[in-house]
Request: fold
Amino acid sequence: MLAAASAHGVPRRRRSGRVRVRGRDDGKRLRAPELGAELGERATLVQFSSAFCAPCRATRRVLDEVAGLVPGVAHVEIDAEAHLDLVRRLEILRTPTVLVLDADGRVVRRATGQPRKADVIAALGEAM
Reply:
């Protein structure tokens, strides 16, 4: 049983934090009322978090820093537990999950786990 759990954990750790395209996100859009905040002029970083998630705090710092560095980019944090309808619709399976939205609110990139600053900046470049 332990070997099976380890075999599952290795690929999951490798994917954690990587910003990637997900085909099923194509066409999904988020609007300001759903987010509870205005979209950024050029792009929006949407972070789904939970209360006792240590990687969520680190992710918040990274995304705040990137949003402060790149003009026209907003960072919005959403409490996953308080927005279960949105979590289900967007198929958020764990926290933190970061969605990169273009200026129109369309989901163009997604990362699960704590993303690296360089990966977030690269994803923004493609979204803008």
Remarks:
- Strands lie at 19-20, 43-49, 73-79, 97-102, 107-112.
- The first helix runs from residue 2 to 15.
- The two ends are 46 Å apart (CA to CA).
